[in-house]
From TrEMBL:
Residues 1-464 are annotated as: Adenylyl removase. The gene is glnE. Keywords: ATP-binding, Magnesium, Multifunctional enzyme, Nucleotide-binding, Nucleotidyltransferase, Transferase. Its cofactor is Mg(2+). Residues 472-966 are annotated as: Adenylyl transferase. It catalyses: [glutamine synthetase]-O(4)-(5'-adenylyl)-L-tyrosine + phosphate = [glutamine synthetase]-L-tyrosine + ADP; [glutamine synthetase]-L-tyrosine + ATP = [glutamine synthetase]-O(4)-(5'-adenylyl)-L-tyrosine + diphosphate. It is an enzyme of class 2 (transferase). The keyword Thylakoid does not apply. It comes from Lentzea tibetensis. GO terms for biological process: regulation of glutamine family amino acid metabolic process. This is Bifunctional glutamine synthetase adenylyltransferase/adenylyl-removing enzyme.
């Protein structure tokens, strides 16, 4: 028995019109309430059309129009997948092209033909143009209806539309010449395509922007040009010549010399931006090429114009401002996240970087964007994302214009369900899960628009663009001799050496070399205004070579202009920073964000280090991890310090807390690897570490105290703790490329001859019987910094009566302190050192100020609790509040101490190694003065004079307050 006939509904194929079944019957594709035999695949194709109802109405109209030829057309649709895909796609996408096919009912046969733009020169131009336009659309859309047909990329469609427009211009020019007759030979006329036609990225419906160049009888040339505009305008598209010199107020046709003169004298920035897409397309080929030869060099020099980058950016903002506020979110072309965002960004990047890199000189947006990505001027991912979003938005624009062949750039409203559904299907989007086609389209549109806006703001307002634009074009391409001369003029003392660095960085054709070629002209200028341009460039080369395989390094420099400026300052000033940077490159990212670089709480900087190292049981691995994290913090602080983003108090406190965290991490790891614990251990910070006044090159002055656990003897506790402490010192002090991690315990009882670790009771007994006045003075800066907190507090309770004596100091003790200080001044100042510029032991230096404050503390802290602080600055403030030091004297001491601390740190940053002696001449003095905030254009000797004056004022206070001299 045969299968029973099952009733079906046209709705199964997406048809909703009441007349659907009637129209299907008329076509012969429907019979007995179901698809006619052999028609299932036709109806399936119809259902995939962007609008099945619209496509079916078009088929029904075409059936009536072709009359007796309908069986032939219907059979062809059954058999020919290409015709089926193309015809149903066009009919379901465009009412205007449906009307054309119905009116010209034999043109359906041409939908499977090849393009023949030459046919526009004969017969009816309007019909021939529309026929070729219909063929382009059919080929563009066919894969939607028949998925096995080839997908045609946006770039190819735009190029075909542009080539069709060029053919139409040539046909219009030929017709115009025929109308004018013999007089047309009295002139030469070249038609220059501009805008999208010039770039071969035309829309389905668009004005065609042109410029006319003429020679000979300009009156005849103008008649020709006007006729071309009229003929093409009536038949195909509006021809817009408003981009010509002086716009609509200017002559329609100018000579080559007239164009050249205008662009040299009067043209504005936007006109050179427009000329980027100029292309001769019709008329006299030699004249057209001569025009390009004249204007193209001007295009690639435009970026040198004053305020070029701000002008282009301001123009984009003006375009945005003219978009009606109610339509801004739906405006595909001019709104935020629209096509102009991509085009302006790409053109600006081309004009700035294309001066020195001819590989960027493309007219089409997508081709130029690909070249920018390939050359490294835009990140690969950014270029790919930008390109995808641009193509998506242009495809939406194409589909919207095809519908009625009207100029439109307006995305449907959110609540226009039918329009959204049609556009989604015309774009090839399908429903996903519970989301309809329209909802999928809305999500995709918003995603791409947001992505375009994000990348536009990232690239179009990139600070580096202004810097690159400021470099003269001739500086981008120099012969060896010219390059050496320019480097010498910029202040490089070894231009030949600098040139070798440049060549090493830019050799080859790699993407990395291209990015370097874009960066170096700017960097050379930036290094030129640092204390050491040659050193800065050398450091940059070393850093670049060390980070050559770090994928984000050059991308970060390219994308963050402010980061490049800061990096140049650091490398041209400091030897410490580049040494650290090659081993802690992650800090480079922070240079783009001053808050992240300098905004961390100084008392919390050690927390990440403690946390990260806590998982290591092995001391060697823990020390290595701690060293790495310390390197990161050291570089962060040094960078913020050199850039003037961090006050000296924060610098010193941060460095002190990093040291404390390193000691805590090392102690924890050493204890974990030492078997069952027999004692608790505490680390007591001394000196600058105890006072949170550590410098970049300071050792860690410490003492170690232990306390036996219950049932353990003091001697066993010491035997347990001593190797732990020895291991900590050994491992931390092992050779390293980083600034040293020397743990100095010389301030312990009996100095280097005494045991490294003592119990609390041992310390008590020693200080009771043998403690000297200098040891009590040293204890003023003692502070528990690591280890067992309770033990540290018990140690503080032990030493407080010693360092803060209730009855102050007797005269003999005061004399002894003064005697020791005088001996230090006489014996410890290095031979040949200049006492006026030695930051530690010189007159008015750190030792002078610190000993003065400490004497006041020993004398009065027993009665004045506010003086009980390990901090020099806090001690000074307390002395002023207690009336022990005048405000003027405290200001003199504080100024000298702060200046000496900063100068000592600056020397370490500049030289890469610690020194207490200020340089007194040369680039090192210039660098130290610059690191201290002294303007680089001023004589660095002024900084030395300021230092000496400040130190002299402090020394006068020291002699009066510390030595008791009037």
């Amino acid at each position: 028995m045969s299968e029973p006939v099952r009733a079906a509904s046209p709705a199964r194929f997406g048809l909703t019109e009441p007349r659907s079944e009637e129209m299907l019957h008329a076509t012969g594709w429907w019979a007995d309430r179901r698809p006619a035999d052999g028609s299932e695949h036709l109806l399936a194709a119809l259902s995939r059309s962007p609008d099945p109802d619209l496509a079916l109405r078009g088929i029904d109209r075409l059936r009536e129009a072709v009359g007796d030829a309908w069986p032939e057309l219907s059979a062809a649709l059954h058999e020919d997948v290409v015709l089926r895909g193309r015809l149903l796609a066009v009919l379901g996408s465009s009412t205007a092209l449906s009307d054309f096919l119905v009116k010209n009912n034999d043109h359906w046969r041409e939908l499977t033909a090849s393009f023949d733009f030459g046919s526009l020169g004969s017969g009816d131009l309007r019909t021939a143009y529309r026929a070729q336009l219909c063929l382009i659309a059919a080929q563009d859309l066919a894969h939607i209806v028949e998925p096995d047909l080839p997908f045609v990329a946006y770039d190819d469609v735009a190029a075909q539309l542009s080539d069709l427009a060029v053919a139409a211009l040539r046909a219009a020019l030929s017709t115009a010449e025929q109308r004018i007759g013999e007089k047309a030979a009295e002139c030469r006329l070249a038609i220059i395509a501009m805008g999208k036609c010039g770039a071969r990225e035309l829309n389905y419906v668009s004005d065609v922007d042109v410029v006319f160049v003429g020679e000979g009888d300009l009156g005849v040339a103008t008649r020709l040009a006007s006729s071309v505009m009229q003929i093409a305008g009536q038949a195909c598209f509006e021809v817009d010549a408003a981009l010509r010199p002086e716009g609509k107020a200017g002559a329609l046709v100018r000579t080559l010399d007239g164009h050249a003169s205008y662009y040299k004298k009067w043209a504005r920035t936007w006109e050179f931006q427009a000329l980027l897409k100029a292309r001769p397309v019709a008329g006299d080929g030699k004249l057209g090429q001569a025009y390009i030869d004249v204007v193209r060099p001007m295009v690639w020099q435009a970026a040198e114009r004053e305020n070029f980058v701000p002008d282009v950016q301001a123009m984009r903002r003006r375009v945005e401002d003219h978009v009606p506020s109610g339509l801004a979110e739906r405006e595909l072309k001019l709104g935020k996240g629209g096509l102009r965002d991509v085009e302006f960004a790409v053109q600006l990047l081309q004009l700035v970087h294309g001066r020195g890199d001819e590989s960027l000189r493309f007219q089409a947006t997508t081709a130029a964007l690909t070249a920018l990505g390939r050359g490294g001027y835009v990140g690969r991912t950014d270029a790919a994302d930008f390109g995808r979003s641009y193509r998506f938005l242009r495809t939406l624009e194409h589909r919207l214009q095809l519908q009625r062949l009207l100029r439109t750039h307006l995305f449907p409203a959110d609540d226009d369900v039918s329009a959204l559904r049609w556009l989604a299907r015309a774009t090839g989007l399908a429903a996903e899960g519970r989301r309809s086609e329209g909802q999928v389209l809305l999500a995709e549109f918003r995603r791409h628009a947001n992505q375009v806006r994000r990348l536009h703001e990232k690239l179009f307002y990139r600070p580096l663009l202004q810097s690159v634009a400021g470099v003269p074009t001739e500086a981008l391409r120099l012969t060896t001799a010219e390059a050496v001369a320019r480097l010498a003029a910029l202040g490089y003392t070894s231009p030949d050496g600098a040139l070798r660095h440049i060549q090493a960085l830019t050799q080859g054709v790699s993407r990395r070399a291209r990015i370097q070629m874009a960066l170096l002209p700017v960097l050379l200028d930036l290094f030129a205004v640092t204390p050491d341009p040659d050193g800065g460039l050398l450091s940059y080369r070393k850093v670049s070579e060390a980070l050559a395989e770090t994928p984000w390094y050059l991308r970060l420099l390219r994308d963050e202009g402010s980061l490049v400026e800061r990096l140049a300052t650091l490398l041209g000033t400091s030897k410490l920073v580049p040494d650290l940077l090659v081993r802690a490159p992650e800090v480079l990212r922070l240079l783009a964000d001053p808050d992240a670089l300098a905004g961390r709480d100084p008392l919390a900087v050690g927390n990440p280090l403690r946390s990260a190292v806590s998982r290591y049981a092995d001391l060697e691995r823990a020390a290595s991890a701690a060293r790495s994290l310390r390197r990161h913090e050291l570089l962060r602080v040094a960078s913020a310090d050199l850039l003037g983003l961090m006050p000296v108090e924060t610098v010193c406190a941060s460095l002190s807390e990093v040291w404390a965290a390193v000691l805590q991490a090392a102690l924890d790891a050493a204890v974990r690897s030492s078997g069952p614990p027999l004692a608790t251990i505490a680390v007591i910070g001394m000196g600058r570490l105890g006072g949170r006044e550590q410098g970049y090159g300071s050792d860690a002055d410490v003492m170690f105290v232990c306390s036996p656990l219950e049932g353990v003897s003091d001697s066993d506790a010491v035997r347990y703790a001593s190797p732990i402490v020895e291991n900590i010192r050994r491992v931390l002090g092992s050779p390293s490329q980083d600034p040293p991690l020397q743990v100095d315990a010389d301030l312990r009882p009996e100095g280097r001859q005494g045991p490294l670790v003592r119990t609390l009771e041992s310390y008590r007994a020693y200080y009771r019987q043998w403690g000297e006045i200098w040891e009590r003075q040293a204890l003023l800066r003692a502070r528990p910094i690591a280890g067992d907190a309770a033990l540290g507090e018990r140690f503080v309770e032990l030493i407080d009566p010693l360092r803060y004596p209730a009855d102050g100091l007797d005269a003999a003790s005061v004399r002894e302190i003064r005697r020791i200080k005088a001996r230090v001044d006489a014996e410890r100042l290095p031979r040949g050192a200049d006492p006026s510029t030695h930051t530690k032991l010189g007159r008015g230096g750190l030792a002078d100020v610190e000993w003065t404050v400490q004497l006041l503390q020993l004398q009065h802290a027993g009665a004045v609790p506010e003086l009980r602080t390990p901090s020099t600055m806090a001690g000074m403030d307390a002395a002023v509040s207690a009336g022990l030091l005048s405000a003027d004297d405290a200001l003199a001491l504080l100024s000298a101490w702060t200046l000496a601390t900063r100068a000592r740190n600056a020397v370490m940053l500049v030289r890469g190694k610690s020194s207490d002696q200020l340089p007194t001449s040369g680039r090192e003095l210039l660098a130290v003065a610059s690191a201290m905030g002294h303007p680089i254009e001023r004589d660095p000797g002024e900084f030395l004079d300021e230092y000496r004056r400040t130190a002299r004022r402090a020394r006068a206070v020291v002699e009066r307050v510390f030595y008791g001299e009037e």
